[in-house]
Amino acid sequence: MPRKSLVLSISLPPDLTSDLDAVASQERRSRSELVREAVRQYILLSRWKVLRQKASLRAIKEGLREADVEKLVDEDRGARRRRH
């Protein structure tokens, strides 16, 4: 059966390692669990940044202002509520 995860080797400065160990102990989790969660969060944040940048560029291209975007979001939320 193939392995479901890969083993990576990373290096951290001693102070960051100490912080990692302290949080792992406090949360009763392993280093690996914490690093996996940190990487997931980083990737999610990175994807949101890309989406936000693309949306900003599109808004600028279409001549939308911040107030216009807020209005569109409010309208979309209202439409979703009415459907449910």
Question: In words, what does this structure look like?
Answer:
- The protein is mainly α.
- The protein has one domain.
- Helices cover 75% and strands 0% of the residues.
- The chain contains 3 helices and no strands.
- It has helices at 14-27, 31-61, 66-83.
- The N and C termini lie far apart (44 Å).
- The mean pLDDT is 89.
Comma- or semicolon-separated keywords:
elongated; mainly alpha; 84 residues
> How much beta, percentage-wise?
under 5%
Could you spell the SSE succession in H and E letters?
HHH
Q: What is the molecular shape?
A: elongated
Low-confidence parts lasting 5 or more residues at pLDDT below 50? none
Measured on Cα atoms, how large is the radius of gyration?
A: 21 Å
Q: What number is the mean pLDDT?
A: 89
Termini, distance in Å? Answer: 44 Å
Number of strands: 0
Q: Please tell me the total number of domains.
A: 1
- Percentage of residues assigned to helices: over 70%
Q: Sheet with the most strands? A: none
Count the DSSP helices.
3
Class based on secondary structure composition and strand pairing: mainly alpha
